[in-house]
Amino acid sequence: MKRGIAILGSTGSIGKQAIEVIGLHPDRFFVTALTAHKNAALLFEQVRALRPRLAALTGVSEPVEVPDDLKFCEFRFGPRALAEVAREAEGQDVLAAVVGMVGLKSVMAARQAGKRVLLANKETLVAGGEMVMNACPKGTLLPVDSEHSAIFQCLQGAGPNPYERILLTASGGPFRTWDKERVKTATVAEALGHPTWNMGAKITIDSASMFNKALEIIEAKWLFNARPGQIQVVVHPQSIVHSAVEFKDGAVIAQMGVPDMKLPILYAMTYPERLQTGSKPLDLFALGQLTFERPDPEKFPALRMAYEALKAGGAACCVLNAANEEACYAFLRGEIPFGRISEIVETALQKHGGLPARELDDIDRADALARETARALMDGRSGSLIS
Questions:
Q1: In the 8-state DSSP scheme, what is residue 44?
Q2: Which of 144, 181, 275, 332 could share a disulfide with 120, CB 3.0–4.6 Å?
Q3: What is the pLDDT of residue 198?
Q4: Residue 146: pLDDT above 50?
Q5: CB-CB contact of 297 with 303 (8 Å)
Q6: Distance CA 76, CA 81 (A)
Q7: Is the pLDDT of residue 356 over 50?
Q8: Which of 27, 97, 20, 49 is nearest to 277 (CA)?
């Protein structure tokens, strides 16, 4: 039976690659809905090609004129449309490939409608981990992030054996070999120069600061019911080992592949089956060598903050995420230096890290307060550092 998939964030990197792999297997999938933030031109192209019955532009305040040849599709507009599409779209699956806290409510809406969630939105579990996992019985939430997909794949061969450690790999980003002081003054252009992955701007900046890995530490805790001490970040510049799992007897099972998101996207869609992704297979003879390093917590304080937020519990992880979002986008606009990102997040954690996170209203309140504090801290910002 064909599976119907709603793609939230269809004009982003994950969304576009999802459409590519769906196109390879038209006998297995059909697209039921598409959403974009503001890229109306590309969304219209996608609707024209895939012919879903529902689509949305979520980053606009007013309706946008829809071309006559697309009138077969119902269009929604505005921020609320994201959760509406997740809830109302036909089909069994929702691919959550939007960036930021906006993903949380749409994931909860999809689950309330009984849909399986293919999760490529870190912030959903970072901000609302316990609440989300309580809404997701086994098999109803599958990871799409390459690292968490890798861990999930490694665990398939474990049987009843519990893991000892999760080895969460990180490329190290563009500043892996820089000294601490140089990192603080990095420009936007330098931070966007990721050595191995082609991602959206926000995720690329998060990779440079290693806040991306901080969010993944928190995500791994919830996805795999891990204690923080069981999650070890390993810097692996080649991005071939996507993550690994260690067992009691010392055995380590790793998932390897080319740096390509099509595999984890399609594996989530087809689990437990595997289909052709259209990408080149891994050529072990061409690799030469694989290297592994310890991360530098002084240069990348985001990693330390992730463990501290997990230890604090409550809304601390939500606060970390919200303050980082505000600071990251301010850096992209050239309003603060790179080194200020972690300083702003740390201050927000100190101020709001003790807030509760029992329900969605608590999470919304903590998110809003953290953003307000982050913006207040940026009021005295200096000139642009964009080059």
A1: H
A2: 144
A3: 66
A4: yes
A5: yes
A6: 6
A7: yes
A8: 20
Residue type, 111: R
pLDDT band, residue 105 (cuts 50/70/90): very high
Q: Decide: 8 and 265 in contact? Cβ < 8 Å.
A: no
Tell me the CB-side half-sphere exposure of residue 96, using CA atoms within 13 A: 33
- Dist CA 89 CA 95 (whole Å): 12
Cα–Cα distance, 314 to 197 (Å, whole number): 33
Mean pLDDT of 18-41: 97
Q: For residue 232, list its beta bridge partners.
A: 167
Measured distance CA(165)–CA(244) in Å, rounded: 9
The helix or strand, by DSSP H or E, that contains position 141, with its residue range, turns out to be: strand 141-143
The predicted-structure confidence for 3-16, as pLDDT tens digits, reads as follows: 999 999 999 999 99
Q: Is the pLDDT of residue 197 over 70?
A: no
The DSSP code sequence of 278-316 is SSPPP-HHHH-----B---TTT-THHHHHHHHHHH-TTH
d(CA 235, CA 297): 12
pLDDT reading at 387 higher than 50: no
Domains of the chain, first to last: 3-143 (3.40.50.720), 149-377 (1.10.1740.10)
Pick the closest to residue 149 from 254, 237, 62 (CA basis).
254
Residue 159 is predicted with a pLDDT of 87
Give the predicted TM-score (pTM) of the model.
0.93
The tokens of 83 are what? 């959760």
| Residue 101 banded pLDDT, cuts 50, 70, 90 | confident
Q: Are 16 and 200 in contact (CB under 8 A)?
A: no
Contact between residue 218 and residue 228 where contact means Cβ atoms under 8 Å apart: no
